[in-house]
Amino acid sequence: MPSYITFDQPELKLGGKVRALPWSFILMVIALGVIGGAALYSAANGSLTPWAKPHLIRFGMSVVIMVAFALVDITVWFRLAYPAYAITLALLAGVEVAGKVGAFGAQRWINLGFVQIQPSELMKIALVMALARYFHGQLAEDSQRLRTLIAPALMILAPTAFVLLQPNLGTAIMLSMVGAAMLFIGGARIWLFIAVGAAGAAAAPVAWRSMHGYQKRRVLTFLDPSIDPLGAGYHISQSRIALGSGGLYGKGFLNGTQSHLNFLPEKQTDFIFPLLAEEWGMWGGVALLTLFTFVSFYGVVVGLRSRNQFGRMLAIGLSVNLFLYVFINMAMVMGLIPVVGVPLPLISYGGTSMLAVMIGFGLLMSVLVHRDTKIGRRYPLGD
Amino acid sequence: MPTERGDMERYRTLARRTVMLGGLQAGMISLLVGRMYYLQVVESKRYQMLADDNRISVQLVAPSRGLITDRTGVLVANNDQNFRALLVSEQARDVERTLGLLSGMIQLAPSEIERIRHDMVRRRRFVPVTVRENLTWEQVSMIEVNAPDLPGVIIDVGEVRSYPLSDQASHLIGYVGAVNEDELSEDNPVLSLPGFKIGKAGVEKSRDADLRGTAGASEMEVNAFGRAIRELSREPGERGRKVELTIDAELQMDAHRRLLQERSASAVIMDAQTGAVYALASAPGYDPNVFSKGIPADVWKDLLDDETTPLINKAIGGQYPPGSTFKLAVALAGLESGAIGIDHTVTCNGTFQLGDHTFYCDAYKNGGHGTLNLIEGIAQSCDVYFYDVGNRTGIDNIAAVANRLGLGQRTGLDIPGERPGTVPSTAWKKAHTGEPWYAGETISCAIGQGQVAATPLQIATMVARLASGRAIVPFLTNEIQGVDMPRRDWPRLDLKPEHIATIIAGMKAATDHGTGKSVQIKEPGMRMGGKTGTAQVHQYTVAEHDKNRIAHVEGDLPWKLKNHAWFVGFAPEDDPRYVCAVLVEHAGQFGSQAAGPVAHDLLLLTQQRDPAKLKVSAELPWNRS
Fold first, then answer.
1. B46 touches chain A (CB under 8 A)
2. Cys staple from B220: which of A29, A71, B107, B228, with CB 3.0 to 4.6 Å?
3. Interatomic CA distance for residues B460 and B458, integer angstroms
């Protein structure tokens, strides 16, 4: 493989690209989607409807989209990074905020025919793309200057603010944390993170006061679920019972009592992991976590192998994004953090996060396929 | 793999930071795995229990109530099948239409339909609501035939208590009813079962612990909305123990039937040697079957308003002046205290003078009884004789002996509702009124008037004690689930046998040629001894005594003010086995006229039937546990 190819000329023909696709990675992704289908089959007491069948159909279409995205040249994604971010932000502002006050007829979803998707889900991908694009243009010494960080900070804060207004605490946390991770690997000084962390802790009381009643209640019941065992604490108590009663080896597929007798709320969406862990036990839970960890780790490896900064940051950012999905969801159903409403990627029912996650995987594979493509630092102005 | 100038440095930074980030992520993953380990391994047992608590609902299964039989094994309290129509609203396509159809078959009143609608709103849609209990066979078959048109209607078989003797033993056996708030405090979950009934009166109440049985349990798997998914296990529970009474149902029915010839009366037939009660009748009675099915308000009100007090068991809960029957205790007290001897004589000229007060005798109009000894005093029931004995003996000596004969305190019969009666004494009066005792009061008490009060059961017990010489306590329970009640070996009364023999001789004389002569049993070997009694309800003035003594007896007074008539007897006269006490409320006649014939009939019947010899028939099905 030639060591130097200009960005103007794609290095690979389509056939070569297909051969370069990471089939082991695709297999792991398909495994996750199928596990999700099985879990949803169980959630419906052993029925393909209403969840497993639509989930698997959507997943199949998403796999096609994922592969298609992987084959698109990385420079295309590089060029689309800012426009994609701008459009998504506009949608977020328009659809989410204006939609809320009714100017858009309360339309909070974009209908793509087979799936409806929230702009906030797409923003998780668009933000990573835009930040990768931005840091592609910065050298190590640039990233250490505060002035350089103003633009990316705004890029993070703008969508976070819109999402908070929704209000959607889970997505806001994910956006700010993914953003912070991007700044971190982009080279921002470490003391900056410490300072922001300290400031955040100091601002916590202010944040507490500005929280919605239900959000406060979630935090309080997280701290002590027995405050409200039949209300807000019910979710987390029943989730813990589902997990704990599964034990080491689980109750067996389709034998979970907590889920099948409806004690476990939201079992097909945010609380699908307790259903899995009840039926498959700790070993099942750890196996799923391991699979996610492999997928996430794969993203890091892809990033480190890329010869362009855009690809590196994009891949690692998408990997962190997936990791955060998984961590926040699992930590919340286990009672480690408050319930904030983040689904388990590819397992939870719902097209919104699935499409975003699969687009992310498509981009990740594109980084891998085009890992040797050189993109000039000042592109498209030239080096 | 840096490719251009300056890229190397930022690649190194990125790689280093990525490794740091990876370390953080590894820590976070460990946290998740650690938490999983804690929940799913360390705390797993606890959460498994919580999950089972969630899904398993233990429902109690009501036990079958124990049966009650008489001494021969005849059922006096039974469990009948109770067919109920239930409606599950979620299974009924159209509730109103279904109710309309049902109404045509079992005639639902508007108030019933209102209650059904009310119950359905309050309960979850899959919980059955009772439409009607105690359906007849015709109604059940009509509903079953039309089942395709009545989706959601279920026929359910439960149990309802039934009492074959109906009003003939209502007070004795009692009835069952729904558990009330106070009774709920008893720590027994079976009490809170819907429709569970417990004993409210009579044997049903006193033996409730034995009759109730032990609840079974059904473990149901339920979902988060409480809907039963399937039954996991079922433990049937234990039916209540069978209680066998000392009663002889045949005799009980005869006694009740005989009492119904009077307006309001009561009778006790018991064993003079053992205390076993063979019949305990109080008339009129009520139908306990109505009570166990839920009594209509108007029926209840009628029972409450009835001046013959059908709800009260007069045999143990009615307190009456014992009249002349009390003379037996007074005579014995005179002998025991040494105030008189067996040969004590008194001359009766019709009156007795104490201070400036004159007390009269029934024989006043005829110039008095003449000179009488103790046996003749009892036989003729001469008031003057007992005024004299009472005056010599003193109230406290009378009270002491009366108490030992079972008066003035509850006998201890094993059903609720017994009242203690009253035997006054100087201490009793001091405690109740703060006033001293006057000698004139003793004169009234000596003939069973004044403050003296006793129940028919107490009078029967008194005579049983005299007849046996033992401190007999009446009882109603023979055995429970085939196990004999503890043997009763009543201690001898610490009274001189020749004193008791004199009293018994007086009673025999009374039915031989005295006040009870007319009711003596003529059948050979069945003759009885007895004592009449007439208890005044109304306090007469001296003038009334002179003018109206006869008039009131003949019935010019309102029913409520007329005299009670007593008769207490034992038979056979030479070897007393049975005691019978009869009280006719407000008979308006002398004891020998109103109560005597009843006692005659009952003691004759008792001896003919001879319940003491009747055995339990072991081959009857309910005698096999």
1. yes
2. B228
3. 5
Query: What is the pTM for the complete model shown?
Result: 0.67
**Within the 110-169 window of chain A, which residues sit less than 8 Å (CB to CB) from chain B?**
138-141, 143
Per-domain residue ranges of chain A: 41-372
Between A97-111, B50-64, B265-279, the lowest mean confidence (pLDDT) is in: A97-111
DSSP state of A344: P
C-alpha of B562 from chain center: 28
Specify the pLDDT at position A109: 61
Residue B156, Cβ neighbours under 10 Å: how many? 13
Taking the Cβ of residue A255 and every Cβ of chain B, the question of whether any pair is shorter than 8 Å is answered with no
CA distance B464 to A50: 84
SS (H, E, C) B111-169: HHHHHHHHHHHHCCCCCCEEEECCCCHHHHHHHHHCHHHCCCEEEEEEEEEECCCHHHC
Q: Does residue B219 sit at the A interface (CB-CB below 8 Å)?
A: no
Cβ separation A331–B223 shorter than 8 A:
no
B20-31 tens-digit pLDDT: 999 999 999 999
Query: Both tokens of residue B68?
Result: 């009650």
Packing angle of the helix pair A119-136, A146-165 (nearest 10 deg): 180
Q: How many CB atoms lie within 10 A of CB A194?
A: 10
Interface test with chain B among A194, A226, A241, by most B beta carbons within 10 Å = A241
Q: How far is CA A184 from CA A109, A144, B437, in A?
A: 32, 10, 109
Is residue B335 within 8 A of residue B499, CB to CB? The reply is: yes
In order of A34, A38, A40, B417, the CA distances from A348 in angstroms are 11, 11, 8, 70
Which amino acid belongs to residue A209?
Answer: R
Q: Who contacts A270 (Cβ-Cβ below 8 Å, separation ≥6)?
A: A329, A332, A333, A339, A341, A342, A343, A344, A348
Contact criterion met (CB < 8 Å) for B40 and A334: no
**Contact (CB<8Å) A241/B17:** no
Distance from CA of A244 to the nearest CA of B (A): 4
In B, which residues are within 8 Å of A331 by CB distance? 28, 31-32, 35
Closest CB to B40: pick one of A281, A303, A331.
A281
pLDDT above 90 (res B419): yes
Say whether the peptide bond before residue A343 is cis (omega within 30 degrees of 0): no
Which residues of chain B does A367 touch, with a Cβ-Cβ cutoff of 8 Å?
Answer: none
> Among partner residues B1, B14, B36, which is closest to A305 by beta-carbon distance?
B1
> Are residues B3 and A313, on separate chains, in Cβ contact within 8 Å?
no
Query: Within 13 Å and on the Cβ side, how many CA atoms surround B365?
Result: 7
Asked whether the beta carbons of B344 and B334 are under 8 A apart, the reply is: yes
Q: Cite the beta strand spans of B194-264 per DSSP E.
A: 197-199, 216-222, 228-235, 243-245
Contact list, A184 vs chain B (CB under 8 Å)? 17, 20-21
* DSSP string covering A112-167: -SS-EE-HHHHHHHHHHHHHHHHHHT--HHHHTSHHHHHHHHHHHHHHHHHHHHTT
Listed in order, strand segments (DSSP E) in B309-350 are: 346-348
CB contact under 8 A, A331 and B35: yes
Dist. CA B84–CA B156, nearest whole Å = 5
B223/A261 touch (CB, cutoff 8 Å), yes or no: yes
Cα–Cα dist A236/A230, whole Å: 10
* Cα B439 to Cα B432: distance, rounded to the nearest angstrom: 17
Q: Is the dihedral of CA B240, B245, B250, B252 positive or negative?
A: negative
> For A27-42, how does the pLDDT look when each residue is reduced to its tens digit (9 = 90+)?
999 999 999 999 999 9
d(CA B588, CA A277): 88
DSSP 8-state class, residue B43: S
Task: Extract the tokens encoding A346.
Answer: 């590819």
Name the average pLDDT for chain B: 87
